[in-house]
Amino acid sequence: MSYLADIFLIALSAALINNFVLYYFVGICPFVGVSKRVEMALGMGFAVTFVMTIAAFLCWIITTFILMPGAPLSKWIAGFFVPANVAAGIDLTILSYIVYIFAIASSVQFVEMYVRKFFPALYRSFGVFLPLITTNCAILFACLTIMSKIVGVDNPADAWDLGRSLTLAIFGGVGFTIAIVIMGGIREDLELCDIPKPFQGVAITLIVGGILAMAFMGFTGVDVGLRNAIMPL
User: Fold this and answer.
1) What's the rounded Cα separation, in Å, for the pair 75 and 72?
2) Under a CB-based contact definition with an 8 Å cutoff, are residues 55 and 103 in contact?
């Protein structure tokens, strides 16, 4: 029961309470650039969710079996060159940024080929923003968060497994989709409004984004209350 409750709280937190875009302010580039139409925003949200899930899966495997101190694969390879006690303490997490960026880029390349093959109109509407998912810091943020929950825990029993990691990635992408679709709907309505010239374009988009962020602050503390209700001390 506690595991399922933990999964539920991770999902709720990633999607609403600690929304990647409106709480941590990561992934702002596609949030601003691909939110002019709801259809484009929804497609970008699905693409980011898919890439984030694949990247999180790859990064969890790489972190668990290669990068973290005492990881079995790096320990086994290092055992051929150094004593066993030294091999057990090898820490390759300093390479995490480089490795994660390669994993994200590979995932984006796969999505780009798929969308270009089966959804050419959507591919053309994305323009340069589809390959720019590679530099979407929301995906890298998800991977680094997962790494911190694996490597940065005092008790190894508290380290996240693959289920928790994928839950964060999937619902982090869902939260991104919610935010960008809401923004897309608002921007479609804004085209019918008389906006002062200095605020047209990106300026009004960022102002609306700030207002949305303040609205999402209303969810603050919900996860703590639910945790206390579901898993009382």
Assistant:
1) 5
2) yes
Q: What one-character-per-residue DSSP string does the chain give?
A: -HHHHHHHHHHHIIIIIT-TTTTS---HHHHHHT-SSHHHHHHHHHHHHHHHHHHHHHHHHHIIIIISTT-HHHHHHHTTTS-HHHHTT---GGGHHHHHHHHHHHHHHHHHHHHHHH-HHHHHHHGGGTGGGGG-HHHHHHHHHHHHHHHS-SSGGGS--HHHHHHHHHHHHHHHHHHHHHHHHHHHHHTTS---GGGTTHHHHHHHHHHHHHHHGGGTTHHHHHHHHHS--
Residue 170 scores a pLDDT above 80: yes
Give yes or no for a contact between 154 and 161, defined as CB atoms under 8 angstroms apart. Answer: no
* pTM strictly above 0.85: yes
Give pLDDT tens digits for 133-153: 777 789 999 999 999 899 877
Burial of 51 (0-12, 13-18, 19+ CB in 10 A): buried
Give residue-wise pLDDT tens across range 64-89: 999 888 888 888 888 888 888 888 88
Compute the average pLDDT of residues 145-173.
89
